[in-house]
Design goal:
single chain, mainly alpha, two-stranded antiparallel sheet, 9 helices, 3% strand
């Protein structure tokens, strides 16, 4: 598995950098086609993640489908995208637009359940759609917000800081990990690994986020440690979903990593935190 990680990890990083370079090169933040390139990059990921999430839901008896979960996930992301690019208007109206989209997501999930002319699990289907609207739609949309307020390179740095904690925790844990972090949830994680991951995330933040986002050194170290910590929390939350469904990985689309949810679980949760940490200093 390590061999595949060493092969496909750099490939994914190179692809991410190439797409963000295109986003930065061909458009200013908040204008077409720059931000649209980032959105187009996110939407296929939502499609694949929705298919994996469908299998997790079905393992718990929630009869939903990848089509409806893709629809509501894309709806959440596109709705936030539209609000980010809209001219400043009444903030109440903006809030209600997002609330309306969330309401429709739940209704779509319930209506999808009705296609088979049955009422069983209708509430669960609506809840699954609402969860997907937030998890695969609204949360990745914070990456778009970071792109608008800063640049594609700041976004890339924030993502790399978050994932660097995964890398540091993995290798530190393999080397010196002795004390289990949460054995009932993720037996492979250790306190030593977490410490190594946080240190690496803080260093990467110092090297990348500090110059790109013009942060003081101390604040950059804090941001790196916090993003690493929250990212590890996102990974553990995904582990809860998988254990609840009785599976080890969310899928097998990425050799050495599992499914796309196994790759994006930490950035999804870290993205809102990264936005507000950067916003607080700006």
């Amino acid at each position: 598995m390590l061999k595949y990680r060493l092969i496909f990890g750099p490939i994914m990083i190179a692809l991410l950098v190439a797409l963000l370079w295109a986003d930065q090169a061909f458009g200013d933040a908040g204008h077409w086609p720059g931000l649209l390139i980032l959105l187009i990059m996110i939407l296929p990921g939502i499609r694949v993640a929705a298919a994996e999430l469908t299998l997790l839901f079905k393992a718990k008896g929630v009869q939903t489908g990848p089509q409806i979960l893709t629809l509501v996930g894309a709806l959440g992301c596109i709705e936030v995208y539209a609000l980010l690019l809209a001219e400043p208007r009444d903030q109440f109206a903006r809030a209600m637009m997002l609330a309306t989209a969330a309401a429709f997501a739940v209704v779509f999930g319930m209506c999808w359940q009705a296609r088979n002319r049955q009422t069983q699990h209708t509430m669960l289907a609506g809840a699954a759609a609402g969860f997907t609207f937030v998890y695969l739609g609204v949360m990745p949309a914070f990456m778009l917000a970071i792109r608008i307020d800063h640049s594609a390179w700041v976004l890339a740095a924030a993502l790399l800081v978050t994932k660097s904690c995964d890398i540091g925790a993995y290798f530190t844990g393999r080397a010196i990990g002795r004390h289990k972090l949460i054995p009932w949830l993720s037996p492979g994680k250790t306190w030593e690994g977490l410490g190594g991951g946080l240190v690496l995330a803080a260093i990467v933040s110092l090297l990348l986020l500090m110059p790109l986002a013009d942060l003081p050194a101390g604040y950059a170290l804090l941001v790196g440690a916090l993003l690493g910590l929250v990212g590890q929390g996102g990974d553990l939350l995904a582990s809860m979903l998988k254990r609840d469904a009785g599976v080890k990985d969310s899928g097998s689309s990425i050799p050495g990593f599992g499914g796309i949810l196994d790759v994006i679980d930490s950035p999804l949760v870290a993205a809102p935190v990264a936005y507000w940490l950067l916003y607080a200093y700006a």
